[in-house]
């Protein structure tokens, strides 16, 4: 806890003042670039991964970066998605899974969460994934499908006002693979970005 308190003190005395204008603006409104749905895993840091400032990402975190199909459970995840779409009109939604995910391990070995009833029920949301192919990539694809069942997302998709993105982040290498809807496969974001830069020259 001492490290966290020291971190706050450094933020308040060294960081906040340098970004005072940003925080003043953010105190009045927010216009995030993307809704970033990712796992609660402490090793995944969305703002570090994307090098974004406060106010740029509207972040939804839960175990396994799950998006329950609309109507299956009206909880915090559904409310967050609805607010991001209907109020903030966020133009991009990124579902970001990661390597070495505990929820994916629980899908493969449900006996490991037998004594954790809340975790067991939550993991059940990914049962579709387990029946398909038991991988992090397939889980991300399933959550993208679930997003389409949310009315607030479906409306903006029809109006072409929101784009969906599927990412898988490698903790050990720092790489990200993105889902390509045309080829229905995951490709390296590094390669894709390099290709895009070359094409724009």
Describe the protein.
- With 201 residues, the chain is of the alpha/beta class.
- Helix content is 44%, strand content 17%.
- The chain has helices spanning 2-15, 20-26, 46-50, 76-86, 102-108, 117-123, 127-132, 136-147, 151-158, 189-200; strands at residues 34-39, 57-62, 92-98, 163-169, 176-180, 185-188.
- Strands 2-1-3-4-5-6 form a six-stranded mixed sheet.
- The longest helix is centred in the first third of the chain and has 14 residues, at 2-15.
- 27% of the residues are buried.
- The model has no long low-confidence stretch (mean pLDDT 88).
Radius of gyration: 18 Å
What topology, given as strand order, has the largest sheet? 2-1-3-4-5-6
DSSP strand content: 15-25%
What are the segments in which pLDDT stays under 50 over at least 5 consecutive residues? Answer: none
Distance between the termini: 49 Å
Sketch the topology as an H/E string, one letter per element.
HHEHEHEHHHHHEEEH
- The total of helices stands at 10
**Shape call:** globular
Structural class: alpha/beta
Helix percent reads 40-55%
Largest sheet: 6 strands, mixed
Mean pLDDT: 88
Number of strands: 6
Sequence-ordered SSE layout with sheet pairings:
Layout: H1 2-15, H2 20-26, E1 34-39, H3 46-50, E2 57-62, H4 76-86, E3 92-98, H5 102-108, H6 117-123, H7 127-132, H8 136-147, H9 151-158, E4 163-169, E5 176-180, E6 185-188, H10 189-200
Parallel strand pairs: 1-2, 1-3, 3-4
Antiparallel strand pairs: 4-5, 5-6
């Amino acid at each position: 806890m001492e490290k966290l308190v020291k971190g706050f003190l450094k933020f308040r005395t060294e960081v906040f003042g340098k970004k005072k204008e940003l925080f003043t603006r953010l105190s009045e409104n927010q216009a995030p670039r993307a809704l970033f749905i990712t796992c609660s895993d402490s090793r995944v840091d969305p703002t570090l991964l994307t090098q974004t400032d406060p106010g740029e990402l509207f972040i939804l975190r839960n175990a396994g970066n799950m998006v329950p199909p609309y109507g299956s459970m009206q909880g915090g995840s559904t409310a967050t998605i609805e607010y991001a779409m209907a109020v903030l009109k966020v133009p991009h939604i990124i579902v970001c899974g990661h390597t070495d995910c505990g929820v994916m391990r629980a899908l493969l070995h449900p006996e490991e969460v037998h004594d954790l009833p809340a975790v067991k029920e939550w993991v059940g949301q990914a049962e579709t994934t387990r029946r398909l192919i038991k991988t992090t990539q397939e889980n991300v694809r399933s959550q993208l499908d679930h997003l389409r069942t949310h009315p607030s997302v479906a409306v903006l998709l029809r109006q072409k006002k929101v784009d969906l993105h599927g990412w898988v982040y490698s903790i050990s290498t720092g790489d990200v693979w993105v889902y390509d809807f045309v080829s229905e496969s995951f490709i390296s974001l590094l390669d894709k970005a390099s290709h895009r830069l070359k094409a724009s020259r």
